[in-house]
Amino acid sequence: MPNRARIDGTDAKIILELAKHPRATTIAVAEEVGIARNTAHTRLTRLEDSGALGSVELRVDPAALGYPLTAFVTAQVTQRMLDDVAAALAAVPEVLQVQGISGDTDLFIHVVATDADDLYRIAGQILAIPGIERTSTALVMRQLVGYRVTPLLRRAVPD
Predict the structure, then answer these.
(1) Average pLDDT over residues 118-131
(2) From CA 71, how far away is CA 97, in angstroms rounded?
(3) What is the DSSP letter of 4?
(4) Which residue pairs from 144-152 have beta carbons closer than 8 angstroms and sit at least 24 positions apart in sequence?
(5) 62 closest CA partner among 91, 99, 93
(6) Average pLDDT for residues 120-128, to the nearest whole number?
C-alpha cells in the first residue's frame, strides 16, 4: 500500500472545488481556492502520486448501461489463493469492487446484473472461481446513502 499523503485544509478545498467542477482547469481551481496555479498543480500531483487521490473516473450509473440490479456477494476464500481469486474477480466485468474483510467471510464483492437470471449467472461464475469456498448473495433493494467523501473533506477545511 502506498504511503498516502495527509490531506490538509488547502488540499481539501482543492478537492471540493474539483468535486463541484470536475472539468475545471488547474488555473480555475487555484483562483477559486485562492492559491497560485503552481501550488495547486504541485498539491494535486503529490496527492495523485501518493495514492491519496485515486482515479478521477466518472461515476456512471450501472443502470444506464443496462445493469439495474446491484448485489453484494460475500465469499469465503482459501487464503493461499487470495491473489488468484482477486485476479479472477477483476476479470469479471460485472464485479465493480472487491474488499477484503475481517469476520466470518473474507471478501465483500459489489456486483451488478441485468436481471435476476443474470445475477444467478454471475454468482455461479464467482462460485466457480478456484479458491472460492462458499458465497452468499444479498440483493440491494434501495440505495439509502451513496458513496461520498464530501462531508469528510468539509470537515478537513478549517473554519
Answers:
(1) 98
(2) 11
(3) P
(4) 147/59, 150/16, 150/19
(5) 93
(6) 97
